[in-house]
Each structure stands twice: as C-alpha cells, then as structure tokens.
Design brief:
The protein is of the alpha/beta class. The chain has a domain at 2-66 and 97-164 and 256-326: FAD/NAD(P)-binding domain. It is built from 14 helices and 18 strands. The strands form 4 sheets. A 7-stranded mixed β-sheet has the order 5-4-13-14-15-12-16. It has a 6-stranded mixed β-sheet with strand order 7-2-1-11-18-17, sandwiched between helices. The protein is globular, with a radius of gyration of 20 Å. The chain starts with a strand and ends with a helix. The structure holds flavin-adenine dinucleotide (FAD). Flavin-adenine dinucleotide is lined by residues 6-12, 29-32, 42-43, 122-123, 147-149, 153, 172, 174, 250, 270-272, 278, 281-285, 287. Flavin-adenine dinucleotide binds at residues 6-12, 29-32, 42-43, 122-123, 147-149, 153, 172, 174, 250, 270-272, 278, 281-285, 287.
C-alpha cells in the first residue's frame, strides 16, 4: 500500500516514519528544496515525547534538548503571577524538552528512508480518490496525508477555501540570542503584550515577544527594545543582545474547526487540520500525536481506518485549539483594571490546580 505525504515539516515527516514502520510504502512531497527548518526554539511537551517514544525517537530528541518544565508567569516587575511546581509536573506527566526546531526536524528526517524524500516537488491539487497532481506529474496513492501546514493545498483542494485561517489579534517575534543569562524559562505578561525566554542546550536563549497589533503590522528589533525597555531583567539585556537578522516576525493565526479531518483516501494532520495559537506550545506536539494515531488507525484497515483517526483526533485537537485561544485572550488583555484583577486572581491560584489543569493536554499517551 502506498501513501503520499504532502509536506515535509514536523507533521509530515513524523507521519512518514509512523507509516513506514507499519509497512506502508511512503513518499514525502515537499515544495522546499530541502528538508530543513529555520525558526527558533520549540517546546516538546510530555505528550509529544510519548508520541516520539512510539516512533523510537524520544531518547534521541531528549539527548538534543534541555528538560525545561514551564516555571511560571511573571508580571513586568518580575514578581511571580503563577509559579509551577516543576518537580511535581515531571513526576505526574514526564519530561519536557526544549530544543532548536532544526534539531527536531533533523532527527525526524534521518528516520525516513532517503528514497522516500522528494524535495522540490510542489503539490497543486489533491483528489479524494488518492490522485495527487504536483510539479513533476500526477501520482496515485492508497492514502494521501495533507501535512502541508496552515495554508494547506490539500485542504483547499477538497474542503474548499472555508474555513479560512483567522487572525488572533497579536503578532509574534521569535529570536535566538547568543547569550544565556537565565537558568530557567519564564513568561512575563504585561498589558496586551508579553515576553518569554527559555535556555537552549547549546548555551543560547530562545526568546519570543507577542504584542496586540493589527494584522500585517511590521516592526523590528528597535521597536521591541523600546517596548520592553522597562521590563524586568534579563528581558532588556536579551533584546540588547539580539541581532536584527535573527528575528522572525509572524502574525498569529488559528484555523476554525473543520467538520472532519478525512475525506475519501485523504487525511489532514498537523496545522493543515488544526492550526492553533502557540500559547500552549502544542501545535507541533499535536502533529506528532496525529502521526502515531493515524498510522495505527490505518495499520490493519487501510483507508477505512481513517474514520477512527478522525474520531480519535478531532475532539482532542479542537479542545486544545480552544484552550490555547482562551489563554491568548487572557494574556492579551490590555485595559488597566481588568489586567490588575487578572494578575490578582493568578496570584491566588494554588499550584496544585495549575498542575492539574495541564493534565488533559500533557497527560496524553498513545
Ligand atoms: C510563534 C510560534 C511558536 C510555536 N511554538 C511551538 C512550540 O513551542 N511547541 C509546539 O509544539 N508547537 C509550536 N508552534 C506550532 C508549530 O510550529 C506548528 O504547529 C508545526 O510546525 C506544524 O507542523 P506541520 O508539519 O503541521 O506544518 P508546517 O511546519 O507548516 O509544515 C508544512 C510543510 O508543508 C510544505 N508545503 C506546504 N505546501 C506545500 C505544497 N503545496 N506542496 C508541497 N509541500 C508543501 C511546507 O513547505 C512545509 O515544509 C509554534 C508556532 C508559532 C507560530
């Protein structure tokens, strides 16, 4: 049985590995000239490490990562708004991993048979019967997996242009800074803006800033330095050490709920199915979960197993899209009085409730 995977990002490569290991002949069509990731840091949470374990890659990913359970959220003066019990989080849910995106992609790429990788091939159209029209011709498959990201051609071919991705109301800047003045990760919430940082295993620091802004509004490092100038240490120093050329700036989108992730011989995984705001650090994690569940659903049944994949994955991923959206809304409140009330409420929240609240997301196992 042959499977074509459209897109060779984290979701596509993980799906290729999972299908290859259950006996499918796989082919990954990727429009970029090579399988790499630019980008910055990536948090791989315990649920996704368990998916990677299922692929036999969890240990390799952890070797390239720092174990960074989320420490908590601060206000702009550096005072804790909420603080997690990292030891308890690990005891309950397992390890957290923070690494460079390129490292995760490299681990995945190396686990796909080399002959299955077809870079430089752009997919133009996908049909429910498994026909894939691309820049090198047309290929027929028993299963087509659309892993082609938020602007998915696979999704548009079959589901049509709606629902279209929706702008979340805030823009995101990411950068890796060559210094590491911090031993632990933290996120700081202001009024309509926030800043996060996390050490990376190679001595550098992954930083991100998120700011309420109209869509497609630019702004570079100079603006970020001015905006976060009065925030607690080490935020101004991290921005001071950043290089303009290393800053990635993107608007933040999510995909409204689809009625189904499958149609005929075609299934969607990752951002193509459920692109979400990055507030829970779960987009790539969910793509990894998708990969292992999809491969197990079609292992015996072939494409008939896709209904199981949809049944198992849609409610869970759409729940996480909603949770992530709600956290983003709260984090981006900007009026002084509601923000003061939010901060006061966060300080009162017991650690045990914070720990428990993560269960439905990070407690997952294949
Ligand atoms: C600021 C930010 C921070 C984030 N942080 C985290 C985090 O810490 N942890 C986490 O789990 N997630 C995080 N995410 C989410 C995560 O980046 C995405 O969910 C994940 O990369 C999606 O992977 P994917 O493989 O589904 O899609 P993509 O990474 O978008 O890959 C799609 C691939 O398909 C290819 N492609 C597209 N169209 C075609 C075509 N027509 N033909 C052939 N190839 C095509 C593309 O070139 C690309 O390689 C973050 C996202 C953002 C924006």
């Amino acid at each position: 049985m042959k499977a074509i995977i459209v897109g060779g990002g984290i979701g596509g490569l993980a799906t290729a590995i999972a299908l290859d290991r259950s006996g499918w002949q796989v082919e990954v069509l990727e429009r970029a000239p090579e399988f790499t990731e630019v980008g910055a840091g990536l948090a791989v949470l315990p649920n996704a490490l368990r998916a990677l374990d299922r692929l036999g890659l969890g240990e390799e990913v952890q070797r390239r990562a720092l174990d960074q359970a989320p420490v908590g959220i601060k206000d702009v003066t550096g005072r804790w708004l909420s603080r997690n019990d990292a030891t308890e989080l690990r005891r309950r849910y397992g390890q957290w991993a923070m690494l460079h995106r390129a490292d995760l992609l490299e681990v995945l790429r190396a686990a796909v048979p080399a002959e299955a990788l077809r870079p430089g091939v752009t997919v133009r159209e996908v049909h429910r019967d498994g026909a894939v029209v691309h820049s090198d011709g047309t290929t027929a498959a028993d299963l087509v997996v659309g892993a082609d990201g938020i602007g998915s051609t696979t999704r548009r071919s079959i589901w049509g242009p709606q629902p279209a991705p929706r702008y979340a109301g805030y823009s995101t800047w990411r950068m890796i800074v060559a210094t590491r003045p911090v031993g632990e990760a933290a996120e700081t919430w202001g009024r309509g803006e926030r800043f996060g940082y996390s050490p990376l295993p190679d001595g550098r620091t992954y930083c991100y800033a998120m700011v309420n802004a109209p869509q497609s509004r630019g702004g570079g490092l100079t603006e970020l330095r001015a905006r976060f100038r009065g925030w607690h240490a080490p935020i101004p120093a991290l921005l001071g050490a950043a290089q303009e050329a290393d800053v990635l700036h993107h608007d933040t989108y999510e995909l409204p709920d689809l009625d189904t992730y499958v149609a005929g011989k075609v299934a969607l995984v990752g951002d193509a199915a459920h692109a979400m705001t990055p507030n829970l650090g779960q987009g790539a994690c969910q793509a990894l979960e998708d990969a292992v569940v999809l491969a197990s659903a079609v292992a015996g049944a072939g494409p008939a197993g896709l209904a199981d994949y949809d049944r198992l994955r849609r409610p869970r991923t759409q729940m996480i899209v909603r949770r992530s959206r709600r956290i983003g809304e709260l984090a981006h409140w900007s009026a002084a009085v509601p923000v003061a009330a939010r901060n006061a409420a966060m300080r009162l929240m017991p650690r045990s409730s914070l720990t428990r609240s993560m269960g439905p997301v990070v407690g997952w196992a294949p």
